[in-house]
Amino acid sequence: MADCVPYLRSESYAKDVTKRLALYLERSGGHPLRLDIRLWSVHTKASTMMALEMLSACSHRWQTVKFDLFRDWPLDSILPCKGKLPTLEWLEIRYRVDCKHVRDIFEVAPRLTHAYIEPWARSFGWILPWTQLTELILILEGDSVIDNDEIPSLLSKLHNIRELCFCNYYETHGFSQFAPTPLNHLRVLEVYQPAMLSWFEAPSLCELYFTDYHRSYDNPYDVPGQISSLIQRSGCRIRKLSFAACRNSYAGTLKDVEELVLDYQHSICPSIDISSLPKLRLLTILCSIEEDFESLANSLTTALESTRVPTRSECPASLLERVTVELHYDQETQEQPKIPERLLKVADEWPVVVFRTQCP
Q1: What is the reported pLDDT for 68?
Q2: Most C-beta atoms within 10 A of its C-beta, which of 39, 144, 278, 305?
Q3: Is 302 within a domain?
């Protein structure tokens, strides 16, 4: 793996990094390359451009590439890569600069199947061989992408997509309506708003993830209505359902769900009534430990008590096999927490409960 990071410490240091990169490329022979290329404010322009030229000369060996582009420099040094990426399989790009003059570099990459783009918008973003992708993660910004035809235009190209993720770190206020796009091979879908499910017709869909990064408890989403509509028009069977959100959510009656994940992130919300999931086998509850663990433990206890789990007396044939509660903590600033006794007693009547503490 090569990491192209010539730091702005001194000219001699930058030259030393460049020499070591040249030596690495020479010794690696014809083996595939896994690259992590980061351009930040601490990097010298001359040495960085030289390093990019050296890596571009080996573009025929690129297998996985991660770009972090946060310098407003022309990227002419990677232009020679265009049309010379026969082995590239995975591409990850994070950028905050104008890349219009190089946006089509990855348009021809016959083996590219996985891509991550942050941020994405067709008007100024990257051009990829969309039709051959099987996994795609797109980080959107605000409503600008949603309010025009960019999404349906993109979806119409994803003929072979199997895993598709839309994330948005900004608050959004509505979505354009258009006819659902058939994605016959799509198995895993992640969205940040249930209304986005109206975009899809996915007969093979079996895993559905909701991720909302905004701390809002008001106006619960219409999750049951949107999921029901998706299932009705697609004929799919959702076996795994995951919520990573701070909003109140209710999944509705879903007869095929076998695994449910409730990711409370940095706060505890009233939990979902899982008694409407008759085939549920695995329930996982995730939350992060911040400074006040005592308050978190109290909130988590309340959430677990309000989680509607059929007991053995109510449903002797219940399929629920395991309830897992994961408490995430920061190893650098926190000691490993001890699970309070009152929290352990909450699940006395549940089938099997596992408490875990771990570092993210």
Answers
A1: 86
A2: 39
A3: yes
| Coil, helix or strand at residue 102 | helix
Alpha-carbon distance of 143 to 176, in angstroms, equals: 10
pLDDT tens readout for residues 148-203? 677 888 999 999 999 999 988 766 666 677 899 999 999 999 998 888 999 999 99
Position 175 in a domain: no
Q: Specify if 264 maps to a domain.
A: yes
Decide the pairing of beta strands 282-288 and 322-328: parallel
Average pLDDT in the 238-245 region?
A: 87
Tally of domains within the chain: 1
C-alpha dist (Å) from residue 207 to 202, 204, 220: 11, 9, 21
Query: Is residue 115 within 8 Å of residue 143, measured between CB atoms?
Result: no
State which residues form the domain around 328.
239-310+317-359
- For 224, the enclosing helix (H) or strand (E) is helix 223-234
Distance CA 98, CA 73 (A): 9
Q: How confident is the model at residue 235 (pLDDT cuts 50, 70, 90)?
A: very high
The candidate with the shortest Cα–Cα distance to 324, out of 353, 357, 287, 358, is 353
Angle between helices 45-56 and 11-27 (to 10 degrees): 10
Note whether 63 and 92 are within 8 A (CB).
no
Q: Residue 45: is its pLDDT beyond 60?
A: yes
Residue-wise burial string across 52-84, b where 16 or more C-beta atoms lie within 10 A, e elsewhere = bebbbebbebbebbbbbbebeeebebbeebbeb
pLDDT tier at 8, thresholds 50, 70, 90: very low
DSSP string, 123-191: TTS----GGG-SEEEEEE-TTTTTTSSHHHHHHTT-TT-SEEEEEESS--------PPEE-TT--EEEE
Q: In this structure, what token pair is assigned to residue 308?
A: 């509607």
pTM of the model: 0.85
* Contact predicate 56/26, CB 8 Å: no
217 belongs to a structural domain: no
What would the mean pLDDT of 92-114 be, rounded to a whole number?
A: 87
Strand duo 90-95 + 353-358: pairing? unpaired
